[in-house]
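ok so i was messing around last nite and threw this chain in just to see what happens. nothing serious, just curious
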Amino acid sequence: MYYISTTKKSFEQAALDLDSEVKKLKFGVLHVHNIGETLRGKGIDFSEECKVFEVCNPVQAAKVLAIDMNLNMALPCRISVFTENGVTKIGLIKPAQMLADLSDDLALLEIANEVEAIMINMVENTK
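result:
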């Protein structure tokens, strides 16, 4: 269900590189949630770092929504850069596996597999 890679890059460098890689592969970054900063800003003792990138390829998203508008709740896709015990990681929930739990439509699964392959490339090219 998860795809997670470790990197020797710092958290900040991995986040910057992921942002560039997403755009290079013709996806857009819709928003970045800085979970670590948000939690600390609320007074919570949270020592790890975590940025969640909401990413989307508009062409693929439009195809998915044309087949099943209810899947808007599963969009956009997310890729996280985070630390765990001093190790920087980059990961995602595999779209094809997630979509398979929501639909058995073969056209949707084909789109999800294409998107998943590109997202895994983003992670591997970033690390």
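not much to say yet. The two ends are 20 Å apart (CA to CA).
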